[in-house]
Amino acid sequence: MGTKILLKWCKLLKYDFFRIYTQHLVLFSPPASHDNKDPDRKSELPQFRKNIYTKVMIDFILELISTEQKTTRQVIDEYKIPKTTLYKWISKYKINKI
């Protein structure tokens, strides 16, 4: 399916089908090689951090904790989120329930 047709379907259904593809690329792309040949040389390409957690996911997980549907330990075990990441979210978004 061409991207023009897919874009029309995205607009029609109000759903971002491109997000599925881009998240797949982020999750399964090979690790970047770091060439130390010339450290002063800057790449012309933009540098992006790989963040697999969307704002919607973070809000959902923090809502589970704040409404006491799940404890932090349950979230860590069930969703395989690192403990430090979860506690950074809690402190960044000021969630009082721990």
TrEMBL record:
Domain of life of the native organism: Bacteria
InterPro entries for this protein: Homeodomain-like_sf
Protein name (Swiss-Prot/TrEMBL): DNA invertase Pin-like site-specific DNA recombinase
